[in-house]
## 1
Amino acid sequence: MLSIQEKKAAHREHHQKAKFIRIRRGIRVARYVMYRETLIDKKNIYWSFIGAFAGIASVGLLSHFYLPVKDNLFLIGSFGASAVLIYGHTQSPLAQPRNLVGGHLLSAVVGVTVRYLVPWPEWEWLACALAVAAALVVMQVTKTVHPPGGATALLAIAGSPAIRKLGFWYVLSPVASGVAILLLIAVIVNNMTDIRQYPDKGKWF
């Protein structure tokens, strides 16, 4: 029979071996994760490029005819962020149609509303902050969080007189029209290949 000291020594040896095995397993998992994350899917990148180019080109061309250059660039910036999500990260919850449409439209409504509530130029900085913060809360409550929506709300405040004159028509055009174009192209392009599905798992809302 083993003595108490021999049992303790055997226990320590077993514990050290188990610890060593866990470390080796952790290293293998880390290597696999690093390998997987550094893989470049050329086909996926190709479709991301096609979708983003077609979407932003279409929105930019449409807005070019009736918006000043400043507003057009700002709006394209907002939609450009959306393009990264819906064409480059199609499985993200933030990229789904509910979030894309709801996030932009609700944020646009919030932005215009805040502009009417705080119409004084000297308080524009406050209106901008209030519009973005309120838009975020509305998106969270309605489960339509879409980060570019913050820029859409901001444009309603910081845009040129041409944007201000639109009032709540701003929600319909250029926002709703631009979102519709982005969504249409996302549905077409992302489903032209077997490596993607949009909306993710076929869920629209």
## 2
Amino acid sequence: MEVRILSENLAGAVSQASRAVAKRSTLPQGDCVLLETVEGRLRVTGTDLETAISVYAGCMVEGEGKALIPAGTLARALASFPACAIDLTLDGNALALSSNGRAFSLDGLDPQDYPPTPDAPDRVADLDPISLRRALGRILDCAATDGLRPILETVNFALHDGALTLAASDGFRLGVHKVETDWQHPPVDPFPEINVPVKTLHKLYRLLPKPKDADEA
């Protein structure tokens, strides 16, 4: 791997992907983020085996490759760089970061041992992230948290007639909210209704941008 990337772009990508990294993992790979070159960009991925977050950052790619580096170690190294372009190179499983006379060599693991993450599905519709955050904020508290009925610890997503409907219930309360989309025509394969764990959606909620007026009620 030979990559040149702005320090703030890499730090931002690592910060966002690290939100999916397990806090206390029994696997050494669970504390890491995967850096890999994909179609001229750098993709940074973190996962706790339940949720995966992949963030793409623009960069100059001179050599393809992958690196599996502990997320905390990488974040601390990046924090020591000013706003500048950083060169990333691989030496075995070690990742070297250098810029303006400052350099780090971070020991990593074999990227082939990283847990596989699913590829992003084909685009179905675009959502306004602030509207989605507002919808999640209104219904997440309606889902069950007692652990007795796993299906009630999820939020149902259903796409019908150009709107995405989110629904959650704990058996006593029911929350339903619709989010408008740009979906105009049904895809070849109908979009299935899916149930997404509340734990995963709380992570998504924290990633989505807040409205400027700070009013989500």
